[in-house]
């Protein structure tokens, strides 16, 4: 049985012929790249059964949580000179000239390698094999000659993971968000065919107040195109969103939100959003950058975790976090894929990822899906951290709000001295007076790591949950 088309699919289908009539439709140009030693017509498709996976942590996994800082840089952190540009320039010259020989070993609590796949041999072998067979060059734009069977296999795997008809890969998650926002904003101008659209004709887009910068920047461009009316709803406030949707007279409505907010560690109210979608019929665009591979039985992300995969219309994600690769994607219907590839500027004005990177990303999808124990280990670290600190940990991202950036740097200095690497985050990444210590919990950290860092933070920070904020969505701390 074929897919039932939504009103949005029909809307895009109405717009696509307008592009075609203006010779503006941008078709992908699939290329099958053969291996030099193979005879013509030999099989070059990727087969996930060929990828070796493991059950339980392996020796190389622990390496994914270990880093070494040049001693000169580490000392600058200790001296409170992190924000001094002159020192950075001088350090760079010393390090790049190989004069710096000493290093400080630290356990990583700041990266986004949530599953610990960055040292996985299966992924490394897939990348090396593709590089040996195909070289390292990206070949070109996906609309010219860069779109290969490796990229198509990756898209197919991601579409299956997200329970969508199709998928489009990008050079980054930032580019994916930008392209989707701009493509949505271009619908009305294309259909208006040169005339100025009426206010009620515009697409009304409702964006969470704490959405990622890539969404915000994409929406700014979408607004400039003249076909979008933008609304910002209070962070994760479904009553406010419902009220805005109810009052809005525009026929076409879009809701866009992060699934897991990277600077607060809280999760969007997925079930409530699914209910509001049924009530208002909006297009639901979900940025699942921090949820993909790390959440859900199969790594399908937070939509899978909350059983609302089919409610999400366009799911945007990244390959640079839990997949330990690089790139982004948008999983959607076939008709939306065609529209985004034609009107998403950050897609068709970018060179596609090199084949070895596409091969590594495909291997990451396979490994992340099959090694489900890694997601379980993340949950174990979350439970341990909560049990030791009392913090209501809701995701693998734990943000300890300090307030003043210099105070946050002071606390971070103590953490670094104890052998853990995390970062004090301040404006402009977060609002003024909300500087914080951001910790990421991963599958390859140990129980002992959690015990040590929890004891350290508890020594310097008194944790509390403000009474005026829902404790299920907020973590706070005071010196």
From TrEMBL:
Query: Could you tell me which InterPro entries the record lists for this protein?
Result: Aminotransferase_I/II_large, AON_synthase_class-II, PyrdxlP-dep_Trfase, PyrdxlP-dep_Trfase_major, PyrdxlP-dep_Trfase_small
Q: What's a single GO MF annotation on this record? A: transferase activity
- Signal peptide range equals none
Q: Name one GO biological process term.
A: biotin biosynthetic process
Record keyword rRNA-binding present: no
Q: Locate the Aminotransferase class I/classII large domain: which residues?
A: 105-455
Pfam families, per the entry: Aminotran_1_2
Q: Which keywords are on file for this protein?
A: Pyridoxal phosphate, Transferase
So where does this one cross the membrane? none
**Cofactor needs:** pyridoxal 5'-phosphate
Return the similarity comment.
Belongs to the class-II pyridoxal-phosphate-dependent aminotransferase family. BioF subfamily.
- Protein's name in the database: Biotin F, biotin 4
Q: Record the organism.
A: Hibiscus trionum
């Amino acid at each position: 049985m074929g897919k039932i088309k939504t009103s949005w699919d029909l809307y895009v289908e109405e717009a696509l012929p307008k592009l075609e009539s203006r010779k503006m439709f941008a078709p992908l140009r699939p290329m099958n790249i053969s291996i030099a030693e193979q005879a013509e017509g030999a099989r070059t498709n990727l087969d996930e059964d060929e990828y070796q996976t493991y059950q339980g942590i392996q020796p190389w996994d622990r390496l994914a949580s270990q880093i070494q800082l040049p001693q000169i840089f580490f000392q600058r952190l200790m001296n409170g000179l992190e924000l001094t540009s002159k020192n950075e320039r001088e350090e760079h010259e010393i390090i790049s000239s190989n004069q710096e020989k000493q290093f400080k070993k630290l356990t990583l609590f700041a990266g986004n390698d949530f599953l610990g796949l960055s040292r996985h041999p299966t992924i490394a072998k897939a990348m090396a094999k593709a590089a040996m067979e195909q070289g390292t060059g990206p070949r070109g734009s996906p609309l010219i000659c860069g779109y290969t069977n490796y990229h198509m296999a990756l898209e197919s795997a991601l579409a299956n993971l997200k329970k969508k008809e199709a998928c489009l890969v990008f050079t980054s998650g930032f580019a994916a968000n930008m392209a989707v926002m701009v493509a949505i904003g271009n619908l009305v101008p294309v259909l208006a065919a040169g005339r100025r659209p009426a206010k009620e004709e515009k697409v009304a887009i409702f964006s969470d107040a704490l959405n990622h910068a890539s969404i915000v920047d994409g929406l700014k461009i979408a607004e400039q195109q003249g076909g979008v009316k933008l609304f910002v709803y209070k962070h994760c406030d479904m009553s406010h969103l419902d009220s805005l949707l109810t009052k809005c007279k525009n026929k076409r409505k879009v809701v866009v939100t992060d699934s897991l907010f990277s600077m607060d560690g809280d999760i969007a109210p997925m079930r409530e959003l699914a209910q509001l979608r049924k009530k208002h019929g909006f297009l639901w665009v979900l940025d699942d950058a921090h949820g993909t591979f790390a959440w859900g039985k199969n790594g399908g992300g937070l939509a899978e975790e909350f059983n609302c995969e089919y409610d999400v219309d366009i799911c945007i994600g990244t390959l640079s976090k839990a997949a330990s690769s690089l790139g982004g994607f948008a999983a959607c219907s076939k008709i939306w894929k065609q529209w985004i590839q034609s009107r998403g500027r950050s897609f068709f004005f970018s060179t596609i990822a090199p084949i070895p990177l596409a091969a590594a990303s495909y291997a990451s999808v396979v490994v992340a899906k099959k090694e489900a124990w890694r997601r379980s280990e993340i949950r174990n670290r979350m439970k341990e951290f909560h049990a030791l600190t009392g913090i209501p940990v809701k995701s693998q991202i734990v943000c300890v709000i300090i307030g003043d950036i210099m105070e946050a740097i002071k606390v971070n200095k103590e953490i670094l001295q104890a052998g853990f690497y995390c970062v004090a985050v301040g404006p402009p990444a977060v609002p003024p007076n909300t500087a914080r210590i951001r910790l990421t919990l991963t599958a390859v950290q140990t129980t002992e790591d959690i015990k040590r860092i929890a004891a350290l933070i508890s020594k310097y920070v008194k944790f509390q949950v403000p009474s005026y904020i829902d404790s299920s969505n907020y973590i706070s701390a005071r010196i």
